[in-house]
Amino acid sequence: MGLVEAWGGNAFGWFFANLIEAPYNLFYALLHPSAWLAWVPHMQLNGRIEDTAVAESLIRFMYYGASWELFFVLFFLFLVVTVVGLLNNLVMWSCVRGLEAMANWIGRVAAWFGLIMVLQQILIIFMQRVFAVAEISLGFGMTFTKDVSWWSEELKLYNAMIVCLCVTYTFVQGGHVRVDLVYSVVSYRTKRIIDMFGSMIFMVPAALVTYFYGWFFLWRTLVTPPFSASDTFKDLDKLLIKARALRWNVETIGFSPNGFNGYFLFKVLLVVFTLLVILQAIAFFYRSFLELKEGPASEGRYLDKDVLGDPIAEQAAQIH
Description:
It is a single chain. The protein is built from 13 helices and five strands. It is mainly alpha-helical and 320 residues long. The termini are far apart. A three-stranded antiparallel β-sheet has the order 1-5-4, with no helix packed on it. The chain is flat, with a radius of gyration of 24 Å. It has one domain (3-100, 187-319).
C-alpha cells in the first residue's frame, strides 16, 4: 500500500501506517499462500532448492516470520478480538477457555514424555549392562537403529519437550512459584490489575525478544547462505536474489561421533515455547480483566485444573 514509506518519517506515523496496512497484509498472505508456503513440500536435510519460486517462498517465510509486518498483523488481530470481547464478554471468555484448553491439552500430552524418558533410560541401562550391545534397534518391518550413545543423548530432547511444551500448562495449573512481595496482601482488584499489566509488560516483551533470537538461531542451522537479524532490515527484493544459491543445510552434528544429531529440534522447541507463552499471556490478560470487571464471583471461572488427589500436594499448589 505504501503508507509506511509515505508516513514513516516519524515514529507516530510509522506506527499507524503499519497498523493500517496490517489488514491488507493479512488478507494478502491468506489469499496467496504459495508466495510463502510453497517450500513446505520440499523440506529435506540437505540439497539445493532447484525451483527458484520455491526458494523465494522460503526466503519470504524467513523474512516475514520476524518482521514488523507480522508483528502488526498479530497486534491488529489482538486489538480486534479485544474490542469484540469488550462489547461481548462471552467472546472474551471463549478466547480464554480456548487458549487455556490448548495449553492444558498440549501440556498433558507432553507430560507423557517424562514416562518415555524413564522407560528409555531403563532400556538403555538394561541393554548396555546386561547384553553389552553397542546399538539399539526399534521398529517393526522398518527398524530404526542407532548407537547407544545416540539414544542416551536423545533423552535431552524429551526433557526439553517437557519444559517447553508444559510451561503454559503449568502456568494455567498455578504450578509456577510466585515471587510474592506485595501480591498476597493487596486487594482483589489490585491483584487483577497487577496480573493484567504483568502479562502485557513482562510476559509478552520477554517472549517476543526470545522469539526473535530463537527465529534467527533456528534458520541459521537449517539453510545456507545463513539468514540473520540484519537481513530483516534489507530490502526483500535484494534478499530474493539469494534464492538461486539457497539450499537446505540442516545441522546434524552431534557432540560425540555417534551421539544424537538432531539438535536443531531444540531450536524449533524454543520458537514454539515463545509462541505458547505469548498466547497464554493474552489469555491471562483477558482472564484478569474479566475477573476484575465481574468481581470475586468470577475468580477461577471455567478454569480446568487437575485434581491431584493428595491434600498436601493440593495445599502446596494453592500456595504457589
